[in-house]
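#struct-queue
[09:14] JT: dropping the first one here, sequence first, then the structure tokens:
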Amino acid sequence: MRRPIVSFDMDMTLLDHETFQIPDSALRALGKLRGHYRIVLATGRDMDSHYSAGLKEKVNPDAIVHTNGAKITVGDQIIYESHMSPELKRRLLEFAGEHDLAVGVTMGDDDYYIHPERVTEFDSRRWGECGRQYQDPWKLMDMEVPSMCYIGDPKGAALIEEAFEELRLPLFAGREGADIIEKRNSKAGGLAVVCGHFGTTMEEAYAFGDSMNDYEIIQAVGTGIAMGNADQRLKAVADYVTADIGDDGIYKACVHLGLIND
């Protein structure tokens, strides 16, 4: 049966960082959507990482656009995957070391970062603790890495973007870091692949988001929805702005757009 897609970002769209839970109202909305629409996660996370343990099961999506489009899965099947070249990884790690920037990635249960002490400071400030298991970041040279992450202020993100024309660094909603994405990948491109897989179109699709890595997907779908807590630049291009994540924003938007009944 042909079913339109409803796509959701994870952090601060579905997952509230105030409680580190998906609001009950959002879970109710997902339950009402299921069977009538294809539910897709489009996130900067690798949802197969241990940091996302349990979240994928709660959402139970039909497909996932991981790591800002660098990996796409339908069930247990990978239908698209791209990796940073060894040359790009080497230049990026060297640049981070030279400029005192925290750059790296979580792979499986382990964390590979240049200047991990900055990541520890960030985690401790935000969560009150840091439980990361740091490994030598140069081991990434022998690993398949779809994308990386920068932890720090916007100036560092701008510095990396200026030095690497093949990369873009959309800031996190809290502006304390950014995804490091090759320009060939995006959530929008990933969702287009998912639409093709399921035989539907981007024009029929809905997408929810809150930060600048959602900018392209919000513009590319037929109906883009920005959370009330979203970046103002995202709200400016969205078709509809809903309430904050903590104020039942997902549920209210689904009712307002006629996707579910209250």
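[09:21] JT: and here's the second one, same format:
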Amino acid sequence: MKRLLTLIAATAGIALAAQNPVFIPDAYNSDPQARVWTVDGEERLFIYGSRDENTAYYCSRRYDVFSTTDMIHWRGGESFSSDEVPYNNEFLYAPDCMEKDGKYYLYYSQSGSGFVEGTAVCDSPYGPFRDGKPVEWAQQIDPSVFVDDDGTAWLFWGQFSAKCAKLNPDMRSIDPTTIRDGIITESEHHFHEGIQAFKHNGTYYLVFADISRRGTPTCLGYATSDSVTGPYTYRGVIIDNFGCDPAVWNNHGSVACFKGQWYVFYHRSSCGSVTMRSTCIEPIEILPDGSIPEVRMTSTGAGDPLSPFVDDNLPARACMLKGHVRIDRDLHLSGIRGGDMAEWINFDFLVSPTTFSITVIPNTGGRIRVATDLLYKAPLATIEVPSGDGQTPITLEAKLNSSPIGVLPLRLLFDGPDTSDLFTIVSFSFKI
């Protein structure tokens, strides 16, 4: 929390991360809604999101917003609090924000019953947003706003069956006579929740949490139409976060174009929980036929490949985890059992290293195979980890069997009993 408060107080850009997850270790930011605006003469990309604070529940009573001009340096912090909602103090779920005539309108949703959605307003896109008021007729979570070419603003929301309605000129209420239900549905479009609308080359897109795989909403899917109210045709999956954590259950995000490049914004779970989610970013394409090819999770995100010669937060940038292993609150890899695997995409071996070094906290002990090939037929190195007390870190090194060069994935395979924790990985790096 101290690190987050430092971030909130900042008035200049802070180099947090270009790679995934974007805001670790300063903030667990989920449900990322991306907006692009020109502020003070600079084109900036803003990410509005929920703040996760605990493995026992989703979200919190705080929202955060972060912005960047280059996808590397970010500024921001707390944007809104349920203290600004006079009629309840419920947790805040996924937000959105929209600008009109120099004012910024935050759209929030809350747990509980009664007035679920509301709006607050500020002269700055960073907040703090004030004067929370309910949006009558919108009684489900996850609001999102779309402004069409003619200036008409639409509010989308809902679970299982998406709804939309025209926003009134005040941007804080809807015209109930325009409410449409079933814009997309679970049965026809695999829609679960977390909708976003945008328009590209005359085509309307809806992006949403998609249950088409495994029956859980780990995907971001999309549907398209030639009308804002549909009918919409399901087009497929943009990204699937399955494999980011053994307990992952949902995804939520958005799509935006910033300085000529399209991106998908999504979150990954951590800590062996469905919560404690972190914002991640991947470049995407929209093809001439309007389709969006699926992309996979990476460690690089919108930034350069990772450096294998530093150990700053490298365990937490694993993009695929198999088995019981998870990224914990200390940004270590823990819960490791035999047969588990961790993968990073990608590392840039500008020069060939000679040695692999890893700091672990041994428990039962086991073996680590280090490889850049999927089948581990030719591991770069093998590390034998002795048993330990589960508290004391040790550093182990091994000479490499070959010399990796270029941009390559990295995979660690863990051998040992599959019934007990073998060790925790604190950090690792390669040496020349």
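[09:30] RK: nice, looked through the second one.
[09:31] RK: The radius of gyration is 22 Å.
[09:31] JT: good to know. The helical segments are 2-9, 186-189.
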